[in-house]
Amino acid sequence: MLIYFPVHVARGKYHKGFSFRFGFLPKEFKTICRGKKNIWIHAVSVGEVLAIVDLVAKLKQALPYHHIICTTVTKTGYKIACDQLPKSCSVLFAPLDFSWVVKKYINVICPQIYLSVETEIWPNLYHALHARKVPIMLINGRISDKSFKKYKRLKSLLKGILGDVTLFLMQSQMDADRIIHLGADSNRVRVLGNVKFDNLPSKVLLEKRDLGFEASDELLIAGSTHPGEEEILIDVYKALLSSHPHLRLILTPRHVERSEEIVSLVQSHGFEPVRFSQLNQVVLTARSMVIVDEIGHLRELYSLAKLVFVGKSLCGEGGQNVIEPAFFGKPVFVGPHTYNFKDIMEIFLREKAIVQIQNADELLSVMQKLLNDPTEFNHIGHTAQKIVERYQGSTRKTVEEIVNLISSG
Description:
The protein is α/β, with parallel strands linked by helices. It has 18 helices and 14 strands. A seven-stranded parallel sheet has the order 3-2-1-4-5-6-7, with helices on both faces. It has a seven-stranded parallel sheet with strand order 10-11-9-8-12-13-14. It has two domains: 8-198 and 393-408, 3-Deoxy-D-manno-octulosonic-acid transferase, N-terminal domain (Rossmann fold, 3-Layer(aba) Sandwich), CATH 3.40.50.11720; 208-390, Rossmann fold (3-Layer(aba) Sandwich). It is globular and about 65 Å long. Helix 4 (53-62) crosses helix 18 (394-408) and helix 6 crosses helix 7. The chain has helices at 4-10, 27-33, 46-51, 53-62, 75-84, 99-109, 123-131, 145-153, 155-162, 173-181, 229-241, 259-268, 298-304, 323-327, 342-350, 360-371, 374-390, 394-408, and strands at residues 37-42, 66-72, 90-93, 111-117, 136-141, 167-170, 189-191, 218-225, 247-253, 272-275, 288-291, 305-310, 332-334, 355-356.
């Protein structure tokens, strides 16, 4: 611990609540957990937390007398969990995977079941839960290409860890095959699909005028962008403006702490940067460019978009979730690096319901082409929306598996 603590401080990971990760849990949390039927669900960061919002709500409906505890690792994940999950849930930072720390968590929570979102494997935690006969379920499980290569090198060690897991609920057959290859018992593996197709709003009330835009303005939303992508999007946007003067660009960086850096970038390209948090203080003009400096707004912004670029795909590695803009029937553009969502991308690409480009020049030419072809433009968005509707249902199946496992315990 004495070594681990200064390393995290040096990396800027220390924050209020960080001491919880070493097992120093607040007294009020111990009181809340005492005597309750507790369900412990772990969602490492923002993406995983957002994926389970609907699942947690449905789980509360199915098991109203159970108390749900969500642990997360990142500060933004913690904030989103506090904001988005039902107020009756407890939110806490996850324990570091030291045997004495995880045992303190288990002793306080006394979980009836432990649910791990996607693929979070913690050897000491899993062994301690298994020793206490607490069922462990991997939900919405996936193994990316990068993770699979890493895990294969540790296959001999992983088999024993995976043996502690009661049930693996995987997103796709490929994910199921991979977890079995790594040592999971095939009789404990199910393919249930991806809950991210379900965790979507019934309706969004935000309108363009609420943000200060005119009804005639057409929004190009650049979502979850990474360094290098903002500059590409600004250049593409400048080139499109001559033929589409009502187009407006909103930059939404994956990490909002980069906002000031992007403000300077926007200024250097001759535009007027407007921070999302200050929209009610300014009047937007044709030279305005909005930079989203707060988390939690991307879904609503996608609903207002004319077209969408999803980042970490041109300059980053692995891509980001394209389901949300597709749900709203928006034409979605991505770069070549989307391996984190390989199965989802295969579905959309197979039905030509997404536009994947290889570089900045192609992004400009294809956006220009589609903006000038309303029929094809609308067809892509409509097809994407139909795909999302077709693949929904994983959340219901997952809740059923959880309830069945708890009931049989």
